[in-house]
Automatic annotation (TrEMBL):
Residues 38-57 are annotated as: Disordered. SUPFAM superfamilies: Ribonuclease H-like (SSF53098). PANTHER family: BED FINGER-RELATED, ZINC FINGER BED DOMAIN-CONTAINING PROTEIN RICESLEEPER 2-LIKE ISOFORM X1. Residues 88-170 form the HAT C-terminal dimerisation domain. InterPro entries: HATC_C_dom, RNaseH-like_sf. It comes from Dipteronia sinensis. This is HAT C-terminal dimerisation domain-containing protein.
Amino acid sequence: MECYFPTIYRDKTSDEIKKIHDLLLRMIREYMGKSKAKQTSSVSSSGDPTHVSSSPSTTVFSRTRLNHLSLFDQFISLASSATIMKIELESYLEESIIPRTNNFNILGWWNVKALNYPTLHYMARDILAILLSTVAFESTFSTGGRVVDTHRSRLHPKTFVALMCAQDWLWYEFKDSSLESKFGASTFDDDDDDDDDC
């Protein structure tokens, strides 16, 4: 930012850098909230090991006391998390800049720095993640989501593609028309009883 923002924004550089800084703080706050929620749910599901059965009047007093103490705990947690959040971001921003090299491994660097910047590490993991999905080979080439049957698999690939495209183009003309309801919306993938007669 300090390198390119003065060239891009000129007089508004400090305002734009502050916007980015505030955005990072909001993102860190959101990530810290997610991690706190996970910790809270795991603690509440494990139960309160210090709770002991007692008389109803003592239980009411204990609940009131616990409510006040938990409110205080929340206050302390919010104050300390805001401080931790700023310290983590500031220490990251003050770290020396790594010289640019061709073989720099950004994911490896974040794995090494995970203990120093735990929240930023999770943010980097999510932001730098490469989305991956897998699809069955057969469904890639099937417009109807089905595997090509043996009769149609004997067609030349160019002929098969031409038939699929023609089907899309021709049926597009009849979409939402009376002809579609009259003839039905049969497709290239629909099996006819007379396939073997051809």
